[in-house]
Amino acid sequence: MTIGDRGGVCATARRLPAIIPVPLARTSAFIVRDRGVLLVDAGNPGDETAILTTMRGAGVRPDDLSLILITHGHPDHYGSADALRDLTGAPVAVHAADAGIMQRGVGGLRFPTRVIWRLIGFAGGMIPFPDPCGVEPDITIVGPADLAPFGVRGRVIPTPGHTPGSVSVIIAGGVAIIGDLLSALLPGGEPRLPFGTEDLTEARRSLHTLLACRPERIYAAHGGPWSGMDVWRRFCGKGSKEDRE
Hints:
By secondary structure, this protein is of the alpha/beta class. It has one domain: 4-Layer Sandwich (Metallo-beta-lactamase, Chain A), CATH 3.60.15.10. It is built from eight helices and 13 strands.
């Protein structure tokens, strides 16, 4: 199945759906509870237990999950997608441009990102390289996509740069969940474009697209959350890094 449309990229609504962060060992996933339930990203292989435990603690049953959305095709974001699909029955969605590397698993990663992950693992001594198993998506996204069919007031927007198929989610009421569009080096750190970004020019363009939606709060897989205004000032405001360049 392929989903996508040509509508606008900003979602609005009178009431906020609940955003439930799921901190994992080296990344984060996010549960969005509205009329339906959306899981944004699925962590590394083996993270399904922690994700389901957080869901149950929030009063969400596994069969309440209506969609597993993968923000991009890296194993720390899709690693538990197969297991969660088996346990919940929810379909897995990813952008068409990253579907191939997710299907192939770790073997599909481009050289620079893989080398960075290996160096981090060797230096820290505690970060195993993810299992090579790939995931077959049920749904491929080809453009801005409405999440209403899954019971969630929000939209998926393409935000390529980190990978060609990276996407972000704009949730009704002013929340953005952005995967690895931005990250922080340390907990509580300022947002920055990640080292593993494949196309910095495209990523900056995607960030401007995201900020045009005027998100009030921005959640990332590595670091944050940050206020939308703080991110705008850092990257787009007068005196920002981009302004100086």
